[in-house]
Amino acid sequence: MKALTPEQIGAWERDGFLVVRDFVDAGELAAVQSIISGLAEQYPPDPAVHIDVDPALADRTDLPASRTFRALIHAAHASPELREVYTLRSKTLDVVEDLLGPDIVFYTDQTFLKPPGGSPAPPHQDNAYWEPYWSGKGKLSVWLALDDSTIERGCTNFVPGSHRSVLEHERDFSKDALFGGAVEGLTPDKLDAVPVELKAGDACIHHGEIIHFSGPNVSDQPRRGHVAVYFSGRCTYTDQVSKFFPDNFIPARGHTYPGCVGGERLP
Ligand SMILES: O=C(O)CCC(=O)C(=O)O
User: Fold this and answer.
1) Do residues 57 and 97 touch, judged by C-beta distance below 8 A?
2) Would you state the pLDDT for residue 267?
């Protein structure tokens, strides 16, 4: 093991998620916060970045535009500094390696900005969004708290052990909207979920197949969570190509393989 204890690996295998306290130090946290704020406030936006406006705040002309964003996507592709201080730094990759193995490919990131009044995220399994394009076991997300993430601010909630079964998501894959898919009839009240409250700088790592959701932000403070997504370098391309983010993988550690993510796409 490079970074995690056997107990932490055991918790990961049992529950499908794992909290790592103080995943970044104060200096690293300040650097990530500042890069994300800079990208969110940049106008016109960096061409590499995709901005998703929060449906609950879309009509709030009294707010600056950046206070109405739900998510800022692909920040690490836009920012070499973010890749250096966080996404591809050794501590992040050591933790990912303990969970995915030695061949690691960075897919992308989504920073859920969740400003005051921001919307909940519906229950879902991330793999439902990825599997049509990149198949195979070994996909995870590192959810880094950029602010304290509390129940009042709309923290994430996970259903322990739910990563062992795959649910059918009603999704129109021709659309690439954030949360464009849902599980019919699955609402937070029907789930035995655990709210994961974090301090700024803590991280919660979650399995690609765990059922999770987050609440609305009913506080007057933002709740930013930066989610970096890593795949095992053994995951393979399928015959479908994502319009949202086609094959723009960054090999992070170990080897890449022909036909596998980060490697050459075979005809
Ligand atoms: O941060 C949130 O509110 C939602 C996070 C989420 O759904 C995810 O990381 O897949």
Assistant:
1) no
2) 87
